[in-house]
Amino acid sequence: MAKSALQIARAAYQPKLPKAFKGGVALKEGKATESVANQAEIKELFPNTYGMPVVTFEEAAAKLSMGDFNVGVILSGGQAPGGHNVISGLFDGIKSMNKNGKLYGFLGGPSGLIDHQYMEITDKVTDAKTQIDINEYRNTGGFDIIGSGRTKLEETAQFDKGIEICNKLGIKALVIIGGDDSNTNACVLAEYYLQKKTGIQVIGCPKTIDGDLKNSQIETSFGFDTACKVYSEVIGNIMRDANSAKKYWHFIKLMGRSASHIALECALQTQPNICIVSEEVEQKKMTLSQIVNSIADAVAARAAQGNNFGVVLIPEGLIEFIPEMNVLIKELNDLLAVESDVKAAVAKLSANSKSVYESLPEAIAKQLTLERDPHGNVQVSLIETEKLLIEMVKTRLAAMKAEGKYVGKFSGLGHFFGYEGRCAAPSNFDADYCYSLGYNAANLIASGKSGYMSLIKNTTKSSDQWIAAGVPITMMMNMEKRHGAMKPVIRKALVELDGAPFKELEKNRAEWAINTCFVYPGPIQYFGPSEVCDLPTKTLALEQAAK
Length: 547
Hints:
By secondary structure, this protein is of the alpha/beta class.
């Protein structure tokens, strides 16, 4: 297989590990834990995994040893840079404690466990049909080593199929690499396997570029660092173009359905004229017209200085956070679930929702009625929010011009950056962080833990000061309504409006709106001085500095 010069160079990169894993290691247990909310309900649902202590690994004289058994690994959900390094770290961690231990990768996500589709991951391939060479995937982006999927592990029949294949392959531990839902499933699986006394452990790893899998224990989900750096490079390039041509306003939608972490981080890295934060829109109950008016006012203010150009960052999920749009979408979801004719469904909307629907550009209104996702919800990523705002800002500016409140020219260009960032080669931070997460997962397995998530803490410091730890997944859970029923889930982390990252944006955005304060981050740097190559995200740095 042909390889680029960068691929060849990155294959030789040796990710850094926390100091605890450079020699002997010992496990230290903390106090008993409880869930973040709904303690009685969570405890009742998870009697075998509730209340376990947070654990950390420390330097010691002797290394841990792993029993003579094998391990399985699953990639679950959307791709995120660094997934291959989690598997690399897991492989190396297993081999460091049991050279005869095998690692099996289940193909296509959780369905591979259920359908018994798997390959052995090894560094000594003897049969290309049944084995994968781990060395081909070190420090690379993507999830193509074994593929991923969105099948949920929720039913006992699925769990029992997993027991069958684990027993057949001599697997005594499963590592599930995924986001909040996937790690919730990992905990449900761990509970069942303990209840049935199967001897199969389950460990989770925190993955998502969206950045919404974090809390008092998880500092950041892997892939967020790389994805934001990829997006920020392209945003910076567009800013340079805007500042050169001086005639376009670029409206850039960024991936991250439920939270605005990516948009906020990219804003802190590039300093656009406007960055909309969905959580602020929701808290302030801002209407669509208020958002449009605020953008139009900034466009007019810059035009008054002769600057008919600028950049607006928009979070992917914005449309659902605007109160009247949220009501409209919910009404449409309900009506279209029982009504196949779109016109008939629209006719049954409430008066307010019908008014909002009719105020939208025709193309956007049509997108709101497209086929629903498997859960019956509107597919937010298909709604071209950037084009909606361009059209509505253009209309508002025409009215302002007629009133003598606007003297410039407006030309809007829309962009959506999403999939470009999900499979990028991981930054040094994500390469190191993910490798450490996998290596740590192997040590949690060797320590006999199950129902834990692999954690690496103190990540704004140099890697030798990183702290390797494990947290009971039940500690991060609460009860939420899903598909009409209360379910235990890991709480999503939205942007905190009193948090340091948002406060940094808030402090600067008035100046950024009027003046051209663009920053051009450039591409990810894999080689060079540490202050350029190994920087964490600004979000992480600000959050940790505030603690």
